[in-house]
Specification:
CATH superfamily of the largest domain: Trafficking protein particle complex subunit 3
CATH class of the largest domain: Alpha Beta
Helix content: 40-55%
Low-confidence stretches: 5-17, 224-247, 484-509
């Protein structure tokens, strides 16, 4: 007999993009709840980072923000400062809207809009009470009323300037405007009608579609580029993660951290020269990748790029001779010769290489020599394992490639890039990488650096079902060790972290992910009194996914 479900259940399961909504009709506990949003906040205290999903955050005292606000007002004047802080809040709201769409893939517009006040409360600026909001995208209508309690902006303004004759929560008013405008795809403006900074008991904020505030409201003048989208275009959450920028560049350097930017700048500066370049970095950081990129932007991008693995000569035999007819030097003429793992080159070949490079300087006019090493140069030269004269000749232009642990802010871009790249290579479309999988990748230490990340994502793509989600079980084998610091924020607001040395050992320390996964499922089931559906909701999984994992692990 076919399974019977209620009409309500069918409507919930069916994909829907609501064009109209009212907060009074929102299901109680609709995701993302405050606990869901708190679960997106992660602490890596030993690593000096706080993450909200895959965006880096900072903690700062409200008095410091108040001092900054006071100084900006004194330096720029009240009107210019109001505009600056309003724009800052607007941008913050846009990023929060992107977070809700990307992390939770919310297909209920009412629930997505309800996440805004929850995020606003969670970040600590103010406690938000939603009185009511309603919207109709086709008519371009939005109306909402919210009460704000204990506004930090109002308190700091009172402390610095006393009671104001106008509303003072500028950044906080900009945040919901940017958030709601981004989700609805049409301009929505929020204004304070009561403010603690003016002596009121609490702040009262009204949000309306721009036309409802009259002709040409002044807020639109500052954000014209952001509010000129097609008026009646419905909200459509992305089915897949955004594609990486410039996908047609074969060896594009992906990242935005200071360390990777420095390496990229050095690469661009030496591209127009033919002098030797040496890449230094741990295994898996992408030294050959950088060398190929340098060749592509150099003076002879169409010429040969010949790679020589120096450790192949350690046993006295290699399929490709280094010198002579058909050798690596001859094949690389006019292009680039890349000497990988340079310090493993045997001493006799070091002597021949030094003599060859010293012949009238002819090599500089016929090819460019690049090399790479993961070993400490000083130790290799001091111990006599590598000729000092050859090293100094080849290391004229050194470029250090940072390990992945020193460029964690690049992880979101790299994850998206490899998911897209490997999905395309293996011709397997995927819906998304799950929140749990992304969060664990953000905490993992990657001893194998970028190569390990790429391999893990590729493994996951191969294991995943076509058109399905990329999950933890597809990416992690169960053999990986959890990172030294694993922190998160409990729904109660308590920071959960591992113990440092000298304190009681944390029960998760030294255990594999497979063991932790079993314990997590058992704890969730115990907390839910054996109710699998409730346990799945607490874990952020579907009932079907949890059933599958329980059966696979023998926990049914």
């Amino acid at each position: 007999m076919a399974e019977r479900i209620t009409l309500t259940e069918a409507s919930r399961k069916a994909p829907r993009i609501t064009a109209r909504g009212d907060s009074r009709l929102l299901d109680e506990g609709a995701a993302p709840t405050l606990a869901d949003l708190a679960g997106a906040l992660q602490f890596a205290l030993g690593d000096g980072r706080i993450w909200l999903s895959d965006e880096r955050m900072v903690m700062m005292q409200t008095q410091v923000l108040g001092s900054l606000r006071r100084d900006v007002i004194k330096a720029m004047g009240m009107d210019a400062a109001r505009s600056l802080f309003y724009q800052t809040g607007w941008r913050q709201g846009q990023l929060y809207a992107d977070l809700v769409r990307k992390r939770f893939h919310q297909d209920d517009m009412t629930a997505a809009l309800a996440a805004g006040p929850r995020l606003h409360t969670m970040e600590g600026f103010v406690k938000v009470t939603t009185k009511r909001f309603e919207f109709d995208i086709k008519r371009g209508h939005y109306h909402g009323e919210f009460h704000w309690h204990d506004s930090t902006e109002a308190v700091e303004h009172l402390r610095a300037f006393g009671v104001s004759d106008c509303p003072t929560c500028w950044m906080q008013v900009g945040a919901p405007a940017g958030f709601t405008t981004t989700l609805l795809g049409q301009p929505v403006i929020f204004r304070e009608v009561e403010c603690m900074g003016m002596g009121a008991e609490r702040c009262v904020v009204i949000g309306r579609n721009a036309a409802a505030w009259g002709a040409n409201p002044p807020e639109l003048e500052e954000f014209a580029p952001a509010t000129t989208r097609p008026r009646n275009k419905p909200w459509n959450p992305a089915a897949t993660d955004p594609k990486p920028a410039k996908p047609d560049v074969p060896h594009a350097i992906i990242g935005k951290t200071a360390a990777i930017e420095r390496a990229r700048r050095l690469l661009e500066r030496v591209a127009g020269y033919d002098e030797p370049v040496i890449f230094m970095g741990e295994p898996g950081t992408g030294k050959e990748f950088f060398a190929r990129r340098l060749h592509e932007i150099g003076r002879t991008p169409k010429a040969p790029f010949v790679t020589v693995n120096c450790d192949a000569y350690a046993g006295g035999y290699s399929e490709m001779p280094l010198f002579g007819k058909g050798g690596a030097f001859e094949r690389a003429q006019g292009g680039t010769l890349f000497l990988n793992d340079l310090f493993s080159l045997p001493r006799p070949l070091q002597s021949q290489l030094a003599a060859h490079l010293g012949q009238e300087g002819a090599t500089h006019r016929t090819l460019r020599v690049m090399s790479a090493t993961g070993a400490a140069a000083r130790d290799a030269v001091t111990s006599g394992a590598f000729r000092a004269d050859l090293y100094f000749r080849l290391s004229l232009l050194p470029i250090v490639i940072p390990p992945l642990r020193d460029r964690r802010d690049d992880l979101p871009m790299l994850i998206d890039h490899f998911v897209h790249s490997h999905s395309r290579t293996h011709r397997k479309p995927l819906r998304q990488i799950t929140v749990a999988a992304r969060d664990l990748l953000m905490r993992y230490d990657f001893p194998g650096n970028v190569r390990e990340l790429s391999n893990m994502i590729e493994r996951g793509v191969i294991y995943a079902e076509p058109g399905g989600d990329l999950e933890i079980s597809h990416i992690f084998t169960g053999m990986e060790q959890m990172p030294e610091f694993v922190e998160g924020l409990h729904a109660s607001g308590r920071i959960v972290r591992r113990r440092t040395q000298g304190t009681l050992a944390d029960p998760t320390e030294g255990r594999t992910f497979g063991e932790l996964e079993v314990e997590t499922y058992r704890a969730a089931l115990a907390a839910a009194d054996g109710n699998i559906s409730a346990a799945a909701r607490a874990l952020g999984l579907s009932r079907a996914k949890l059933d599958y994992r329980l059966a696979k692990l023998g926990l049914t």
